[in-house]
Design goal:
Elements (H helix, E strand, L loop, with lengths): L3 E5 L4 E2 H13 L3 E6 L4 E8 L7 E9 L2 E2 L10 E4 L4 H5 L3 H12 L4 E4 L3 H4 L10 E2 L6 H6 L3 E2 L5 E4 L2 E4 L5 H12 L1
Parallel strand pairs: 1-3, 1-7, 2-4, 3-6, 7-8, 8-12, 9-10
Antiparallel strand pairs: 4-5, 11-12
Length: 183
């Protein structure tokens, strides 16, 4: 059965973390909307490890945002995907993002959060208290500051309606678990 899935992101979203879920959900026949601060073409980025101690960033492809956050009525959607990259760092300050994310938690709808997506939860500390999730390792202090348990022994973790993953190499297992929640 087809579901309506919302992806929230912005410029500097990790390319694989937005494209892979978007096309995988479309492949399964779901209706997918990408929302951002404004309805526009978004710039994606590619994060990878070269010979640095941290990741390097390169410019990726463009992808269309179909709606602005202000236009989104989260009650019209069955599930939420939050990709990583640098987008979560600034979109978390948007009150509409907070309104949207809070709806999915309170309605117990499926939520998929990968890599730096956990930064969004830092603006709503009550949502994750007592929960468990994983994220990019640099996000561990933020996750723990929220009163959540950071899961380090699995790169993909499911806690009720929340599927989380470390980063883009985990996309196949991440999407497999998220699609299970959508059924």
């Amino acid at each position: 059965m087809s579901k309506k899935v919302l992806i929230i992101t912005g410029d500097a979203v990790e390319a694989l973390e937005v494209y892979y879920p978007y096309y995988r959900l479309l492949e399964e026949g779901h209706d997918v909307t990408i929302a951002a601060p404004k309805k526009k073409k978004l710039h994606t980025v590619v994060h990878d490890f070269a010979d640095w101690d941290t990741y390097v960033e390169k410019q990726g492809y463009l992808i269309d945002a179909h709606a602005s956050f202000a236009e989104v009525d989260p009650a019209q959607y069955d599930a939420l995907v939050i990709p990583g990259g640098r987008a979560p760092e600034y979109i978390r300050l948007d009150e509409n993002v907070q309104r949207i994310v809070r709806h999915f938690f309170e309605a117990n709808k499926p939520i998929a959060a990968i890599c730096h997506a956990s930064l969004i939860f830092e603006t709503m500390p009550d949502l994750l208290k007592g929960r468990s999730l994983t994220a990019y390792i640099a996000c561990k202090p933020g996750v723990e500051a929220l009163g959540a348990t950071y899961v380090s022994d699995n790169t993909v973790h499911v806690d009720g309606n929340l599927v989380s993953a470390h980063a883009w190499p985990d996309l196949p297992a991440f999407m497999r678990e998220f699609l299970r929640l959508l059924q």
